[in-house]
Design brief:
This protein has 17 helices and 4 strands. A two-stranded antiparallel sheet has the order 1-2. A two-stranded antiparallel ribbon has the order 3-4. It is globular, with a radius of gyration of 22 Å.
């Protein structure tokens, strides 16, 4: 982070840079291009690891594929701040990061866990059934392809819990269900679920391997599409550059909505209120602590105008912080302090998780330490959202409406 701090100090020292919204929007788009590019690169590494697993299933190749999945989450989670203010991203995001999911749509699950009164397909198990009925018509799924997953299975019948593609579908196939509740342990799918012939466990190992490959190929294709949207000539880059005021509002909308309704509310406070490990973001792998951290880091990245790439290089330039400081130095200083505080609170969750208390354990009733860690991060995210609103005012922009959450805005509704 030291190089980033030096670059930002240089940028903050230049009034000319601070006064140029177009330059700030260029930096924002450059960070998006780099982060989605890194997401693509790490997904391609996951693709190679999945191919190795399928070619020679073993505990070692399964663990390597899992490690590649975890690594792929690092840059992608830092892109989530681009979602809410940019329709191109928001309309696409569900293809790659939708959750929670009724995993019984895809593969076998433990007895009694494939039930959802609102989803008739919660126990469909496409991997075990080459043909099935969906929306009143017979589906031939003899060949599991990316197109079948994207066009037929994903959000089948318009039900959001029918998540058939993206990171979390792949996560489920690599880890299997986490049946430990709020106790220790993640999913424990054996590598033998991918073995061919008599040693296959779980049934339909050939189709499970094919589905995993197809879902990973689809993820790579989806990320390639979005990386292109932010490259020179891409539609997302052009959209934020077309109207500087609207572009700045897109940055602030993404920051505020991710901070408040999405992360503080839906991803953190809600699960704590319900004491429900099914509400954790990476529920099969117990990687939720890292996904939360990189979401928070992504918010800070776009405000400070700097992103650390997976290859160690830094993309940095004139920032929103520069603009806010030129209008109200106090608001900028307060927001930067609060962004550091939220990242610090999320880092405390990471430290605890790496020390043996996984995020789902933090959600357990009576776990005062876990509750305190999560609430500290929630409070920090809510606090910084108020300063994001002050930044909107300091820049003379129209008042923005950020995403909300019943867990924060109407807690009683959560239990109705």
């Amino acid at each position: 982070m030291r190089l980033t701090a030096l670059l930002l100090s240089s940028a903050l020292a230049s009034p000319a840079l601070a006064a140029d919204p177009a330059a700030v929007l260029d930096t924002y788009a450059d960070i998006a291009e780099a982060a989605y590019g890194d997401s693509l690169t790490t997904a391609q590494a996951l693709q190679a690891a999945v191919a190795a697993l399928v070619a020679a299933p073993s505990d070692a190749t399964l663990q390597a594929a899992r490690a590649a999945w975890v690594a792929a989450r690092v840059p992608y989670q830092q892109t989530e701040v681009f979602r809410f203010g940019n329709p191109i991203v928001d309309d696409w995001e569900g293809r790659v990061n939708a959750w929670p999911l009724d995993e019984g749509l895809i593969d076998y699950v433990a007895a009694g866990t494939a039930t959802n009164e609102e989803n008739p397909q919660a126990g469909l198990n496409v991997i075990a059934h080459p043909t099935f009925t969906l929306s009143g018509r017979q589906i031939d799924a003899t060949v599991l392809t990316p197109a079948l997953i994207a066009k037929t299975l994903h959000e089948a019948d318009g039900i959001e819990a029918n998540v058939a593609s993206g990171y979390h579908a792949i996560e489920f196939l690599l880890w299997g269900q986490d049946l430990n509740g709020t106790g220790p342990g993640a999913g424990a799918r054996p590598h033998t679920d991918f073995l061919q012939g008599a040693d296959c466990t779980g049934g339909s190992c050939d189709r499970r391997a094919t589905y995993l490959v197809a879902a990973t190929d689809l993820l790579v294709a989806d990320l390639d599409y979005m990386a292109g949207q932010w490259a020179e000539g891409g539609a997302a880059r052009a959209a934020v550059a077309a109207d500087p005021e609207a572009g700045l509002m897109a940055i602030l909308t993404g920051m505020g909505s991710l901070s408040y309704g999405e992360q503080a509310g839906e991803r953190m406070k809600l699960g704590l209120m319900l004491n429900d490990p099914e509400e954790e973001h990476d529920c099969f792998s117990d990687n939720t602590h890292m996904s939360h951290f990189y979401d928070g880091l992504g918010i800070r990245n776009v405000y400070l105008g700097a992103y650390n790439r997976v290859d160690g290089s830094v993309v940095a330039g004139p920032s929103l912080s520069n603009l806010v400081a030129a209008s109200d130095a106090g608001v900028d200083a307060q927001l930067r302090t609060e962004l550091d505080a939220s990242v610090g609170a999320l880092q405390a969750i990471v430290t605890a998780a790496e020390g043996g208390m996984a995020y789902d354990q933090m959600l357990a009733p009576g776990n005062a330490t876990g509750e305190a860690l999560i609430l500290a991060a929630v409070d920090a995210l809510v606090t910084q959202t108020r300063s994001i609103e002050r930044a909107v005012t300091a820049l003379g922009l129209s008042k923005l409406k950020f995403e909300g959450s019943d867990s924060l805005d109407n807690p009683n509704a959560v239990f109705q």
